[in-house]
Amino acid sequence: MNNLSQTSAKRPLTTLQKSTKKKVTVRLKNEVEYKGKMDNVDSYMNLIMTDAEELHEDKVIANYGRVIVRGNNVLFIKLENEL
Fold first, then answer.
1. What is the pTM of this model?
2. Are 77 and 16 in contact (CB under 8 A)?
3. How far separated are the first and last CA of the chain, in Å rounded?
4. Rounded mean pLDDT of 23-43?
5. Sheet with 74-79, side-by-side order of all strands
6. Per the count of CB atoms within 10 A, which of 11, 26, 33, 44 is most buried?
């Protein structure tokens, strides 16, 4: 019997979709970082965040009600509840 078929692989997109309404940190390729609640994510990893804060060197420099992040600009997404 193949063990591969019995183990469920963790897929990044599936993990993100299951983590909507949770706090995340998103770092963009241009080094801008946002923290907030991930409201929604699509198959391109475009994100809608609410209660978002823009950070620079771990200091809050701006507060936004809602931020839309295009997926191809994302360097990484960190789920805050898995720290």
1. 0.80
2. yes
3. 35
4. 95
5. 59-69, 47-56, 33-41, 23-28, 74-79
6. 26
